[in-house]
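Record 1 of the preview.
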Amino acid sequence: ITLVNHPDAPFARYFADLDVPVVDLVDEAPELPFPRVIPDNRAIGAMAAQYLLNIGYDHLAYQRLFPARVTDARLEGFRDTVQAAGKHAYVIDFMDSPKRINPYTDLVPWLAQELQNLPLPVGLMMQHDGESMITFMACEEAGLTIPDQIAVIGVDNNELICELGFMGLTSVDRNRRRHGYEAAALLDRLIRGEHAPQSPLLIPPKEVIPRESTHALVFQDAELLRAVRYLRTHFRNPDLAIEEVIMAAGVSRRKLYYLFDKHLGRGIHEELVRLRLEEAKHLLATTEQKIFSVAMQTGFA
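->
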């Protein structure tokens, strides 16, 4: 089981010459004849975009600071999801910057300028958690606050970075445990003489882990903001009625339904169910609680 990050790497040629099964965990050298188990990078980009849309961002951007094949697929998934919601996806790509820029000395000032050119508030997806220090420094240099003006989401859910950095970093958990498990299972099948699959096995992302870097509500409409805040505070109450949400918003039922449809693309009840399901999924994935207990905690009767 290996990570071939370049087709010309000496160890890649070494593995290709071995008469033993090999499983590659990345897709950086597709021309080499290895069976692969890789993250579903389109789905990762789509999950990050959908999360930012769900918390109210109309402006979304994707940031790429270093070259990698995975970035293309993540950008495609991100852009397609944003466009399907009727919004525009901005792209900050250091690979398109002038050649004179030195990535070791000029990257932070360059990124600060690029971030200042974005419409605010904006939800920003990084290609992985490792870019967060550069991103946070660039936001500070640009005078932009996180998460009020820029909500930042990464990929990998690397707890050393996400929990111990400048602030808690929201991140897509790309399901690394299952990634390793499926790679080992494929290797076992190959050892037993089964044929290698014709296409890579894609591992779907697990979930978004919310942290401080996206803890903001950005709706410009005050009535909608009050309604969404009320829903997020009280969705665990199984007796919560839509009338309570309307009263909290201080607006007519008709107008509130219009605001939900315009900004979220769904109704009040649909948003309530979505919040409950997301919390239930999180508890089922991260605790040993029984389904009945999870249902009771998340507002399902």
